[in-house]
């Protein structure tokens, strides 16, 4: 059984809705679209990690505490 056969079998069973694969006969436009999506995912992941790191070093309530009685 090939990977494509396995995905097709799972799709028919309703387990896998849409695998993140590009068919062998895909056009350059489709490949470029997938690469762009992957790049966006990497950028979003980097931003999320940076934000998480910032929250680790800056606890809630950190900031301007002047004139608070």
UniProtKB/TrEMBL annotation:
Coiled coil: none annotated. It comes from Sterrhoptilus dennistouni. The gene is Igbp1_0. Residues 44-59 have a biased composition (Basic and acidic residues). This is IGBP1 protein. Residues 1-69 are annotated as: Disordered. GO terms for cellular component: cytosol. GO terms for molecular function: protein phosphatase 2A binding. GO terms for biological process: regulation of dephosphorylation; regulation of signal transduction.
């Amino acid at each position: 059984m090939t990977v494509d056969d396995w995905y097709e079998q799972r799709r028919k069973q309703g387990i896998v809705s849409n695998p993140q694969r590009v068919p062998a006969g895909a056009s350059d436009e489709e490949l470029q679209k997938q690469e762009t999506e992957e790049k966006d995912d990497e950028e979003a992941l980097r931003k999320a990690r940076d934000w998480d790191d910032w929250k680790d070093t800056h606890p809630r309530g950190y900031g301007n505490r002047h004139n608070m009685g």
